Amino acid sequence: MKNTITVGLLGLGTVGSGVIEILRDHKERIEHKTGCDVTIKSVLVNDLSKPRELPADTQLTDRSEDITRDPEIDVIVEVMGGIDHTLTILLEAIEHGKHIVTANKDLVAQHGEQLFEACQKHKCDLYYEASVAGGIPIIRSIMDGLSSDRIRKMMGIVNGTTNYIMTKMAQDGVDFDSVLKEAQDLGFAEADPTADVDGLDAARKMTILSILGFSMPYSLEDVDIKGIRGISSDDITYAEELGYRIKLIGIAENDHNGVSVSVEPTLLPIQHPLSSVNDEYNAVYVHGDAVGETMFYGPGAGKLPTATAIVADLIAVLKNIRLGTTGTAYVQPQFPKQVKTKKEQLTKKYIRLHVDDQAGMLNDLTNIFAEYDISFDQFIQRPTEQEGERELMLVTHRVSEEDFEKARQDLESLTSVRSIDSIFRVEGGE
Ligand code: NAP
Ligand code: HSE
């Protein structure tokens, strides 16, 4: 057994520099836990001319093969992001017997199976705790802590950037663009922040959690995704009036009809524990048959929280190397994929619309909802600054996605409906 483990680091941005810092500051603790000294031999970057702080014996390169083919390197820590190019690099590394630790949810959500197959073939480890909810050990909790239970539902605030943006918009009335810039400066946002804002980043994380939690090969393409661009300050205010807070929530449910996964702005009762998760913090609520309700909370993005998860994975690899058990952690999904139809997906809905203030208008509206057996839980109406116009805010009881969509189309065709401004999912408050 080697007493020194040599690491190749792919990427030296926000997370990569955190990994170097933790390995330096917690060197003795890591050595005590694993019996190994960890050294970073080489670091891959794009731009060799940027000024960097590196340990004395670490070299920089812009050629991935300097790392993937280096026989001295045992483990690759991938914190550079990207999908296709990064997949090629990691597959080459695995072929050369390297274990992989990655924070890359884009890659794991899309090509996890291919990576796992390659790892099994070459007896290599693949760990990715940092890919979901940054510093929260949610993957270990699902894989180990809750492994004896059957998980029915997971609800997560799993994107730090959007939670930061929505917190600042709700609490300080700051406008969307300036608060997005702040989240970028703080290192939470992706290189292309549209993945955060449009819900794709959260969808990738919910795909990973669903595969693990439900032991089913769920695909990113099956996730219903809506981002936060459609939320107005009016919606935030009205939601509060109705007793709710709006958050971008990933919801994964598993029942006898199969699995549904969505990421969308959702109204949660103000007293729901997820409603008070603010700023870049993440939380994942997990409901299991036996355990009941559990919730995991912590920083979901940022340099040191994410690097903590990476180094914890590195420690797991070192222990496996010591025990001779590398490449054995992967468990195939137990069940075939079963995706719920729109008819089987039942949710409450919030809808805000502007209508003509005329006799019979409400009657037309309720007739449409009655046709699809949709009843109301809450209802507010008020005049607007426009002559002859009223604004309506409705919360329905549970309705199938299919029936609600039909009712929405019928509403749109009513001449007395001037605009349908927002439609959001509503959780709880039954
Ligand atoms: P970042 O700050 O943009 O850093 C990326 C690093 O990778 C940079 O050092 C860059 O080189 C290097 N790089 C990018 N593409 C490269 C290429 N094709 N060849 C060589 N080097 C390349 O990114 P980050 O925020 O640290 O995120 C890294 C990964 O962690 C991403 O997968 C992200 O989704 C994930 N993650 C991030 C967070 C977070 O809070 N930031 C949390 C969880 C997971 P240069 O320095 O030369 O530009
Ligand atoms: N951009 C991601 C977020 C980073 O804001 O949550 C952590 O995965």
From TrEMBL:
User: Which Pfam families does this entry report, sorted A to Z?
Assistant: ACT, Homoserine_dh, NAD_binding_3
Which annotated residues bind NADP(+)?
Answer: 10-17
**NCBIfam families registered for this protein in UniProt:** PRK06349.1
Entry EC no(s): 1.1.1.3
What cofactors are annotated for this protein? a metal cation
Domain (ACT) spans: 350-425
Gene3D superfamilies, per database record: 3.30.70.260, Dihydrodipicolinate Reductase, domain 2, NAD(P)-binding Rossmann-like Domain
Which InterPro entries does this UniProt record tie to the protein? ACT-like_dom_sf, ACT_dom, Asp/hSer_DH_NAD-bd, HDH, HDH_cat, HDH_CS, NAD(P)-bd_dom_sf
Q: What is the lineage of its organism?
A: Bacteria, Bacillati, Bacillota, Bacilli, Bacillales
**Is Glycosyltransferase a UniProt keyword of this protein?**
no
State the organism named in the record.
Halobacillus litoralis
Q: Which residues form the active site?
A: 205 (proton donor)
Recite the UniProt keywords alphabetically: Amino-acid biosynthesis, Metal-binding, Methionine biosynthesis, NAD, NADP, Oxidoreductase, Sodium, Threonine biosynthesis
> Tell me, which GO biological process terms does this entry list?
methionine biosynthetic process; threonine biosynthetic process
Q: State where NADPH binds.
A: 105
Q: Which residues bind L-homoserine?
A: 190
Q: What is this protein called?
A: Homoserine dehydrogenase
What family classification does the UniProt entry report for this protein? Belongs to the homoserine dehydrogenase family.
Give one GO term, molecular function aspect: NADP binding
In which pathway does this enzyme or protein participate? Amino-acid biosynthesis; L-threonine biosynthesis; L-threonine from L-aspartate: step 3/5; Amino-acid biosynthesis; L-methionine biosynthesis via de novo pathway; L-homoserine from L-aspartate: step 3/3
Organism superkingdom: Bacteria
Reactions listed under catalytic activity: L-homoserine + NADP(+) = L-aspartate 4-semialdehyde + NADPH + H(+)
